[in-house]
Design goal:
The protein is mainly α and about 60 residues long. It has four helices and no strands. Helix 1 packs across helix 2. The longest helix has 19 residues. It is flat and about 40 Å long. The two termini are about 20 Å apart.
């Protein structure tokens, strides 16, 4: 398994565990809220640079 596949499998496992232990709305808030909070913590210049890059460049 590649590194990215292991990360994806771990994320799916954590998501399923959250859905079992927490109400669905709390799981959804965590799953959607963490990436949104990380994006909002970037500086405006970092956000611009992120918009200019492609997904292929992000995986380097």
């Amino acid at each position: 398994m590649s590194k990215n596949a292991k990360i994806a499998a771990g994320g799916v496992a954590v998501g399923l565990i959250l859905l079992i232990w927490l109400p669905w709305w709390a799981s959804l808030l965590i799953i959607l809220g963490v990436p949104a909070a990380a994006y909002l913590m970037l500086d405006p210049s970092q956000r611009r640079r992120l918009h200019r890059t492609s997904r292929k460049q992000l995986r380097r």
